Amino acid sequence: MADVQLKEIAKSFGTVEVIKGIDLEIGHGEFVVFVGPSGCGKSTLLRMIAGLEDISRGELRIDGRLCNDIAPRDRGIAMVFQSYALYPHMSVYDNVGFSLKLARVPREERDAKVRDAARILQMEHLLDRRPAQLSGGQRQRVAIGRAIVRHPKVFLFDEPLSNLDAALRVDMRMEIARLHQELGATMVYVTHDQVEAMTLADKIVVLDHGEVQQVGAPLELYHRPANLFVAGFIGSPKMNLLPVNVTGSRGRSIQIGSVDVMATPFDIGAAAAGAPKELVLGIRPHSLRVVAAGAAKIPAEVKLVEHLGNETVIKAQLASGAAVLAIVAGDAGLKPGEKVGLTFDRAEAHLFDAAGRRLLRSSETAGGRR
Amino acid sequence: MRKFLCLVAVVVLVFVYLFPYTWMVLSAFRYPADTFAIPPKLFFEISFDGFRNVFRQSVFGLYLMNSLIITLFSVAITMLVATPAAYALVRISRGGTAFLLTVLIARMIPAIALVVPIYIIGNLTRQLDTYQIMIVVTVAFNLPFAIWMVRGFFLDLPANLVDAARIDGASEWQVLTQVAAPLARGGIFATSVFVFVGAWNEFLFALILTSGRTTTATVALLSFRTSQGIEWDTISAGAFMVSLPVIVFAFIMQRYLVEGLTMGAVK
Amino acid sequence: MRFRPRPRRDSSAILFVVPAVFAALLVLIVPLAMSAYYSITGWKILQPATRNKIVWLDNYALVLTDPAFWSSIKVTLIYTVAGVALESLAGLALALLFRQNFVGRGVLRTLMILPMVITPAVVGMFWKLLYDPNYGLYNFALTSIGLPAVPWLSSTWALTSVIIMDVWESSPFFMLVLLAGLQTEDKEAVEAARIDGASSWQVVYYLTLPHLVPYLAIAAAFRAIWSLSEFDKVYMLTLGGPGDATTTMSLYAFKVGFVGFDIGKISAVSWIIAVLTLVVTAPLVAYLLRGRGAGSGGLRR
Predict the structure, then answer these.
(1) In a 10 Å sphere around its CB, with 0-12 CB exposed, 13-18 middle and 19+ buried, how is residue A62 labelled?
(2) Is A151 an 8 Å CB contact of chain B?
(3) Is the Cβ of C26 closer than 8 Å to some Cβ of chain B?
(4) Number of domains chain B is built from
(5) Where is pLDDT greater, at B24 or B228?
(6) What's A238-352's CATH class?
(7) Are residues B82 and B148 in the same domain?
(8) Which of B93, B107, B159, B183, CA to CA, is 20 to 30 A from C263?
(9) Chains that touch A (3 or more CB pairs under 8 A)
């Protein structure tokens, strides 16, 4: 168990900076997930923590110790790779025990540790096999076993479930969650899959273009995205985003509206005074409700209806031609071409300024914002 | 049916294509008179006179042994030097390519351009006509190719394996000896076969740097070439023995041979 | 994900190249430096007094005004260009044939590539037997079907004979490289073309050949590099004769150095040959390394 501190960490290849000065605190026993689109730098950042990539600038501390120039093996970390990276020429037993053998751990102790790890992962019956004889899920277990056996202070996972099929992914996700509880170790986990991020993380770090977009608990990110990027990235399907104009302001409130959205007041506190003229209104599909035409803030025409059984996905077109998604519980009984109204709860809607930053409501503290 | 015709066509083609060599092999085993019998004799009396003559006219046994000693030592040393070098080139990107380029360019300089100064160095250090000088030169000349080829096999290994091994605590040397080299052993083996063929077939350096004591079998063939009269059986027997090891190798190493021959070019 | 430089501290791997660099220095750089020096001396082995006599560029002038030198350049170029062109065609035909699926393909293919592993000196040797004007197989075959004998190793025919021998030896190399290229052909595109109504030959012409062009270029580049320094086979077959008819650059250098024992002159020849070869082949190597240099994966990321 250990904490990890990143201070102004940056990495550049030549003149291209791919990680742009990241500050991050990862606490003891915390499960932190780096999430972001491909190319956002999340894997590079993880590999920098592992010591597989140079740190161009900044400080990396693991358990308080400056680790910038410490070899990977001396950082007290273990890593699980997307491709498993099992040694194909060694048995499962030797794969798991390789690090101990390199560290010249006596044979009996090594054997005990390997068997212990195998027991934790319920793969004792696989020890004599070669990686090629294992299924994807079993290989992933071995890869995790290889990490466990080192009793690392920090576990690093680089998209460990990406090569598994959907069903197995759910199983292994739960397995990893169980391991985290059982071992109580600090874990850093990289994924592009927001479901993994939401379900596993104590803390999610959303990255884009080598910069931290937001750090926070999964629900915090969901309910209070700091900016358009996070709003669009977290939550599935994506948040509907509609450009709106500020048509007036009064005290702590502004009035917004557009061709699509009827005038609606928003309480944005002190920011109301200097609010810009153009904003983006963000509403999650799950926050939109379908009501009779004419009665709602957003008039729309149903274009496509997908019945999923427990819920219905409705694609609707607004006055401006913009499309939005709404998801309603059960079977909505709507047909394409039908005119409807869409309505939403203002508490579940968000406003973003031209720079993409979310405007805070007066009820919020400065908390969810970076 | 189409497949059958295709097979017949290919068999005929291969037979015709290899006939020049087959002809020589046949000549080694029959009396010269039978070689030019008209009409050609399908069945002929097998004769070992050619082989007997080869060993009578020169110390061909010694020359074959010289070839073998020089070749085996060269293969072993080349691979011991080339494997770590190839690994390093794969791992150290900066400068590695530049080095490789230099090495490959060096390989393009015709051997003849280096042989005179090497001869002079050998003369000055009294190393002419020794195994050492032949081995050193053979190693140096086969190194670029061996490095290039082993590098190709290393490039085929997943990068994550090295990352994993380093996190598991392996030093670069341990990554090489315990992960990379064992995984690429097929390729390393294939490369050594190529170095074997290259070293065994070497001619120019042996022609110039050896004289009698360490003359190799390829160069010894010259003595038959210049011998007067057409001793087909003798010449063919000698040439056959020189070419036999590489042909045997080609068959044993079928799979690797194809891989290796195309490797440098295609990978 | 590619081209990730490693952390500095892991550069211990650089030590692994030290022996290779040492070998290169010993057998490449030192000899080249020495011959650079000798090339400006007038040293003839048979006249020890000439050892350190500096003659500056006289040797170079001597070589560059030697008709035999220019003749060797011409021979080498004809040999290389004709050989590579013919081998490309033969190799292509062989590859298309060996692409078919038939029983025993593996064994037949291995048989087919024997010419390129057989000791080149042996190849030169038995082709000399085959070309023998009176007892050689070829004239034997020609005369038995009533055709006139060909003076294979005469000054008019010798270079052609050398090229035929090289085509025999090296076409399988082209076949192999092209077969490897064929393996990467997009099968679906071929199927799509067939459905679109393309005949077998149209598929070959419009899809297969364009796909093979880079492979052909690579094979040709390799072969050209080797051909430019050809020695063994030609030495065995013709010794460069008759006259200078088949004297390649390497054979020219050999004759100058080990027949005349003129160290100064052969050193100059060595340098001229080295530079000429590099000028011709450097673009080829650059081509070969293109796309490989950074490494497309593997141990280096």
Answers:
(1) buried
(2) no
(3) yes
(4) 2
(5) B24
(6) mainly beta
(7) yes
(8) B107
(9) B, C
pLDDT per residue as tens digits for the range C159-215: 999 999 999 999 998 998 898 888 888 888 888 888 887 888 888 888 888 888 888
Cβ-nearest to B208 among C4, C16, C258: C258
Whether residue B94 is predicted with pLDDT greater than 70 in this model: the reply is no
Does residue A25 have a pLDDT over 60?
yes
Give the domain ranges of chain C: 58-289
CATH code that applies to domain C58-289:
1.10.3720.10
B199 with B90, same domain: the answer is yes
Mean local confidence (pLDDT), B193-197: 88
> Could you count the other beta carbons within 10 Å of the beta carbon of residue A221?
28
Nearest to B166 among A73, A84, A103 (CB): A73
Q: Which of C36, C83, C82 is nearest to C60 (CA)?
A: C36
The token duo for C163 is 């090229």
Collapsing DSSP to helix, strand or coil, A262 comes out as: coil
Q: Cβ C7–A13 below 8 Å, yes or no? A: no
pLDDT in tens, C76-110: 999 999 999 999 999 999 998 888 777 777 888 88
Minimal C-alpha gap between A44 and chain B (Å): 13
Is B14 in CB contact (< 8 Å) with chain C?
A: yes
CB pairs < 8 Å spanning A and B:
58
Tell me, yes or no, if C9 comes closer than 8 A to chain A by beta carbon. Answer: yes
State both tokens at C227. 């051909």
Query: Taking a C-beta distance cutoff of 8 angstroms, is the pair A173, A161 a contact?
Result: yes
* pLDDT mean across residues, chain A: 89
Q: Give dist(CA A280, CA C224) in Å, integer.
A: 65
* Token pair belonging to B125: 């250090």
Would you say residue B97 has pLDDT above 80?
no
Phi, psi for residue A212 in degrees, rounded to 5: -75, 125
Contact A53 C3 (CB under 8 A): no
Q: What is the pLDDT of residues A35-91, one digit of tens each?
A: 999 889 999 999 999 988 889 999 999 999 999 988 888 888 999 998 888 998 899
Going by C-beta distance under 8 Å and a sequence separation of 6 or more, which residues neighbour residue C184? C211
Question: Domain with B164 in it: what CATH number?
Answer: 1.10.3720.10
Q: Do A54 and C7 touch (CB under 8 A)?
A: yes
Range of the domain at B1: 1-47
Q: Enter the tokens of residue C46.
A: 């048979």
Chain C interface mutation, best of A54, A55, A159, highest count of C Cβ atoms under 10 Å: A54
Q: Which of B87, B239, B254 lies at the smallest CB-CB distance from C122?
A: B239
The structural domains of chain A, with segments of one domain joined by +, span 4-232, 238-352
Closest CA–CA distance from residue B166 to any residue of chain A (Å) = 6
Asked if residue B67 and residue B132 are part of one domain, the reply reads yes
Inter-chain contact A13–C6, Cβ cutoff 8 Å? no
pTM over 0.90: no
Q: What is the ipTM for the molecules in this complex?
A: 0.86
CB-nearest partner of C125 from B117, B197, B221: B221
Which of C247, C230, C259 is closest to B111 using CA atoms?
C230
Find chain A residues with C-beta within 8 A of B178's C-beta.
Answer: 98
Report yes or no on B52 lying in a domain: no
Binary contact (C13, B91; C-beta < 8 A): yes
Q: How confident is the model at residue A282 (pLDDT cuts 50, 70, 90)?
A: very high
Q: Which of C123, C120, C97, C93 is nearest to C108 (CA)?
A: C97
Please check the confidence at residue C296 and state whether its pLDDT lies above 50.
Answer: no
CATH topology for A4-232 is Rossmann fold (3.40.50)
